[in-house]
Structures are given as C-alpha cells and as structure tokens.
C-alpha cells in the first residue's frame, strides 16, 4: 500500500508510524489518514518479524485530534444528520482505537508536541508513552461542546485513574509533559532532541525478548483488565504451557546457565 498521510518504516524488528500531515497538525479524522493507520496496524500483526510499534507525529505536533475546520464547516465525517454523524464516527475515527488496541506487539507513543482531544486519546491508545518536553496533553472535548467520541472514556481512566480522568475531561485543561508524568499519563519525559533515541531504546529492549512470549504477555495483561482472577489464572496456565514448549524458552535457560546472551528466533 502506498502511504500519503503517514510514513511507515520497519527497522530491526521495530515498526514506526509517523503521522505526516504537519500542515493540519496531524489531525486524524480524514478518511485517508484513518485507512492508512488501520492498514499499517494490520501489517504489524501479520509480520512476526515485528516486535514493537512506535507511533509519533511529524513536528511540531503529535496530533491535534479532529479537524476543527471540517467540524465548523460540517464537512467530511462531521456532515449529515445526527444519525449520520453517529455512523460516520463508527465507520471512520473509531476504527483507529480498534486497530491500535488490536496490535499484538507492544506499542509506544513518542509524543513530540501537542496531543489534543482525539490526539491525546491517540497517545493513550498505545501501551506506553514517552513525551518530549515540548509535549502538551488535553482532553479538551468539552471546551468545544463535545464528548470523547473516539474511546477516550475507555483509555484515559485506565491510564490515570478515574478521579484524574474526570478532572482532565471535565475541565478541558491542557497539561505539560511534567504534569503528565506526575499523574502517570506518560512513562518518561525527555528533551525534544532525545525523544526518538529514548523511544527506540525502549522499543529495542522490548524487541530483544522472545517474540511469541512477548505477544502472549501483552495479550494477558489486557485480558487481566476485564477478567476475574480464576479465569485469568486459567489463561495464564495455558499460555505458560505454550511458552514452556518453545525453543526460545530453552535458549533462555541455556544462555542463563552459560552466562551468555540468548538469541531468540521466535520458535
């Protein structure tokens, strides 16, 4: 697939999606942008050589979320009757949280600038977040008379807890990277020029792990958010039995006994 709205790269088992519409501050409500992000996520799942995914934006913004000009003009997905707009959300931007949430490898948002509205939620759709000191975050929907229409009400409380999610949503405040770190919204804050170095460093550390066990570990963590303990333990036992039978598990044990570094093959 040819990409016009994003850049998609794979390097040493790490895939990177870069939202590449700085002219509209990487707004994510355009049909082409949505389709390209969705397709890239699908390719990540299909390629077992990929072990981590980074999501970032072309400077100066991570993502401004919805295209405000289209909203004002009632164009694109913001056009039509209320019933039609509801269907537009389902068939357009809501495909992004479903696609990112379904990515089977660990995902990291490298937040290089403003992450506002749906852009903030986009960062939250990733498993981890690293913020540039230039980053700002805002769950700003109520400021323009809207609610989080893209899954923010699902992702935000899971990242920062219900009380803080309520404050951010109800006030519409925009917070800087340091405050985002204080409330647990991001894992790290770094100088802007160090953002991708830090992000690739974390992605590389993750990508060095056994790929089959890595995908199962991610799946298990998310199952644990909604499962009762007996069901999660049953699933854990099943996944663990699969891991015990892999060559990578034996390689890890052999390397440990030999005081060497394991080489994992995904078998």
Task: Write a structural description.
- The chain has helices at residues 31-46, 68-73, 82-91, 95-101, 118-124, 152-160, 162-171, 177-182, 195-207, 211-223, 229-244, 247-258, and strands at residues 6-11, 14-19, 52-57, 107-111, 114-116, 128-132, 136-138, 174-176, 188-190.
- The strands form two sheets. Strands 1-2-3-4-6-9 form a six-stranded mixed sheet, with helices on both faces. It has a three-stranded mixed sheet with strand order 5-7-8.
- The chain is of the alpha/beta class.
- It is built from twelve helices and nine strands.
- It folds into two domains: 6-207, Alpha-Beta Complex (2-enoyl-CoA Hydratase, Chain A, domain 1); 211-258.
- Helix 1 runs parallel beside helix 4 (95-101), helix 6 packs across helix 7 (162-171) and helix 10 (211-223) packs antiparallel against helix 11.
- The longest helix has 16 residues, at 31-46.
- The model has no long low-confidence stretch (mean pLDDT 95).
